[in-house]
């Protein structure tokens, strides 16, 4: 009789332990519940191409994830700081160019700060064509936040 109880306890412990360590599936439903669209502006200040490519992939995955969950994203990606030097045809690699083009086709807007380009000596004449030059990205951040865009800073 004691052996049966011991076996029952061992089985119960094993069953419970297995469920405690089960991998959760990713789920954004709670955050996106009730939304049919979402407006976001990414304030990008990455200084190197590897980080830029990582974040461009992240933006694309975010866009696709929202669409898959029935939410239409309205995305704007603005660049300021020394990373604006990366936005020229000569500085961008093929991966970054393709990601920017793909996102642009989805309706994502790209802006580069002319003020930052001047300060960090980046030539606006060589700006990648899918990126729009604006006078001051801080004005964009102010304007779009006042229009209901959530701001996310990427460093």
UniProtKB/TrEMBL annotation:
Transmembrane segments: none
Pfam family, one: DsrE
Family annotation (PANTHER family): BLR3518 PROTEIN (PTHR37691:SF1)
Descriptive protein name: DsrE family protein
The organism of origin for this protein: Geoanaerobacter pelophilus
């Amino acid at each position: 009789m004691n052996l049966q109880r011991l076996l029952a306890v061992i089985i119960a412990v094993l069953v419970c332990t297995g469920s405690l360590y089960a991998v959760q599936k990713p789920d954004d439903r709670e955050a996106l519940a009730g939304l049919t669209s979402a407006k976001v502006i990414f304030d990008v200040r990455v200084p190197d191409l590897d980080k830029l490519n990582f974040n461009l992939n992240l933006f694309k995955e975010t866009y696709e994830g929202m669409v898959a969950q029935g939410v239409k994203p309205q995305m704007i990606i603005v660049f300021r700081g020394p990373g604006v030097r990366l936005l020229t045809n000569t500085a961008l690699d093929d991966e970054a160019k393709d990601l920017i083009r793909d996102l642009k086709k989805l309706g994502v807007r790209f802006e580069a700060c002319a003020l930052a380009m001047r300060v960090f000596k980046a030539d606006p004449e060589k700006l990648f064509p899918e990126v729009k030059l604006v006078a001051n990205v801080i004005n964009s951040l102010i304007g779009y936040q006042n229009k209901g865009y959530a701001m996310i800073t990427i460093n």
